[in-house]
Amino acid sequence: MSSHPINEPILDYEAGSEHKSNLKKELNKQLNEVLEIPCIVNGKKVYTNNTVIQVVPHNHKHTLANVHLAGKKEIEEACKSAIKAQTDWINMGMENRAQIFERCADLLANKWRMRINAATMLNQSKTVFQAEVDAACELIDFWRFNAHYAREFHEQLQPLVSPEGTINTTEIRPLEGFVLAITPFNFTSIAANLPSAPALVGCTAIWKPSRNSYYSNYLLMQLMMEAGLPDGVINFLPGSGSEITETALANPDFAGIHFTGSTSVFQGIWQRIAKALPSLKGYPRIVGETGGKDFVVAHPDCDQKGLTVALLRGAFEYQGQKCSAASRAYIPTSVWNGIEEKIILETNKIKMGDCNDFTNFMTSVIDERAFNKITGYIERAKNDSKCNIIVGGGSDNSKGWFIEPTIIVTTNPKSETMVEEIFGPVLTVYVYQDDYFEDILDMCDKASPYALTGSIFSSNEENIQKAYNKLRFTAGNFYINDKPTGAVVAQQPFGGARASGTNDKAGGPLNLLRWISPRSVKRNNLKIHDWTYPFMDES
Ligand code: NAD
């Protein structure tokens, strides 16, 4: 076994540091230009002149880029070029492909780091820390660890037995055809990983980025080309998800979908794939990581200070726009009496504003649609007699789409903010009687259709084990005495089941295995010249 990579160290951007001053310069530079973003089809820039603008969410009058959207012609061309590029891409061999993505990681760790971080801060309104852990560290880790895992399973998947005179091998073929990668706005790292993970093992891809992250995603497309990604291997298509899916599915060489986004969109795509099945060459692989309603359950014996920090960070970092964000908490009365005042005090201390001001802990939510959806939940809670907003509840969309960190206490464990994904800075707390811990575990398990992440807080091993067993299928990523966010590649491979996805664990070998279709090869070196068997001899 080869030695494995290490996780990319997180830069601090402390006052007076070179990193901080370089990043500030880059932010200014990007704020002073308007980029023209084309489609990239077969390695060529295509300007369609059917454009939309890309704005800064915390300052939505500021335009970052004009984006040229793909139409049917570009989508069809992209499918063709992906199909055409596959033979050479396979022939290049796994090692050469792995080296291209390792070069991508090195470029991102060094030359491109500030550019991609600044772009993610401006395009998706992330604080410097949130951009650094996502767009730099997580993506560097995806590229390095995926290359490592692919090398390892190429060895591990070889047959165990080759009897004398025979050589058995397994060719790690990719899927035949192209993979459609439809990517979310909230993690720059996930966006680039979805087309590049299948590409690493020999697939080619169409990349449909989210309309809210065209800018940072386009820069990553350029980075991959600079690292030597051959033309046509990944084709970058800003545009309508529905139209791109329709055109891709009309092509018999559609081999799979790598999706991250909301549950309803993924379910719709799955149904469309099922309908298209008779006209496709093969059975496509369907991989989707979707929504969450992530929980924190506290036991009366828990560390109350640790719980408070986990709730604040888990619920409000990146404005709660993480699929793993803590958005429902079940807290026993004795613990709630101990932390309520403190959590209100600390929430009121959270500074919110422009990502350029590094003292801010939060910025704005992503767009008008998200703003309206999240404030809708808050307004309905204000009018619900079973809900009480104990802190936050305000919002302001005049300059950017800002929503205050909000905590709702409810007496109804099935209130909509306890069970539906909000995807914003809203935490709902249900306070339970101290001796109902086991009932609460059952309630947590059944309350919501999602099963992505969750945490248990307790200082007692027996109680932890009870939660561990009862919540087995309630979360694909389970945390003990920690917040339910912040999974790290190669440490906690990420994904959930039930309505949260196919649980194919991005950032681990299980995901890469979905993009291969092995060929078993038996080579016979014996000269077999007699067709009869010994049992046929009666003498
Ligand atoms: P979204 O579902 O709105 O969009 C995701 C992608 O799907 C975008 O590229 C979008 O353009 C595309 N799309 C939208 N409608 C489509 C259609 N009809 N056909 C084809 N494509 C279509 O999600 P989002 O707002 O970008 O991201 C937030 C969601 O993603 C949340 O639900 C969050 O929980 C989830 N998410 C999950 C994970 C995970 O690992 N489980 C990670 C990140 C985000």
Description of the structure:
With 539 residues, the chain is of the alpha/beta class. The protein has two domains: 72-290 and 501-520, Aldehyde Dehydrogenase, Chain A, domain 1 (3-Layer(aba) Sandwich); 294-480, Aldehyde Dehydrogenase, Chain A, domain 2, CATH 3.40.309. The protein has helices at 18-31, 72-91, 94-109, 113-124, 128-156, 188-200, 214-226, 241-249, 263-276, 304-316, 333-349, 368-382, 416-419, 437-447, 461-470, 509-513, and strands at 35-37, 39-41, 44-46, 51-56, 59-68, 166-171, 178-182, 204-208, 234-236, 254-260, 285-289, 294-298, 326-332, 387-391, 395-396, 402-403, 406-410, 426-432, 450-451, 453-457, 477-480, 497-498, 519-524. Strands 14-17-18-13-12-20-21 form a seven-stranded mixed β-sheet, with helices on both faces. Strands 9-8-7-10-11 form a five-stranded parallel β-sheet, sandwiched between helices. Strands 1-5-4 form a three-stranded mixed β-sheet, covered by helices on one side. The model has no long low-confidence stretch (mean pLDDT 98). Bound molecules: nicotinamide-adenine-dinucleotide.
Topology record:
Blueprint: H1 18-31, E1 35-37, E2 39-41, E3 44-46, E4 51-56, E5 59-68, H2 72-91, H3 94-109, H4 113-124, H5 128-156, E6 166-171, E7 178-182, H6 188-200, E8 204-208, H7 214-226, E9 234-236, H8 241-249, E10 254-260, H9 263-276, E11 285-289, E12 294-298, H10 304-316, E13 326-332, H11 333-349, H12 368-382, E14 387-391, E15 395-396, E16 402-403, E17 406-410, H13 416-419, E18 426-432, H14 437-447, E19 450-451, E20 453-457, H15 461-470, E21 477-480, E22 497-498, H16 509-513, E23 519-524
Parallel strand pairs: 1-5, 7-8, 7-10, 8-9, 10-11, 12-13, 12-20, 13-18, 17-18, 20-21
Antiparallel strand pairs: 2-3, 4-5, 6-23, 14-17, 15-16, 19-22
Helix pairs in contact: 1-4, 2-8, 3-5, 4-5, 4-7, 5-6, 10-11
Bound molecules: nicotinamide-adenine-dinucleotide.
Nicotinamide-adenine-dinucleotide (NAD) is lined by residues 182-187, 190, 208, 210-211, 241-242, 245, 260-262, 265, 268-269, 289-292, 323, 421, 423, 452, 494-495, 500-501.
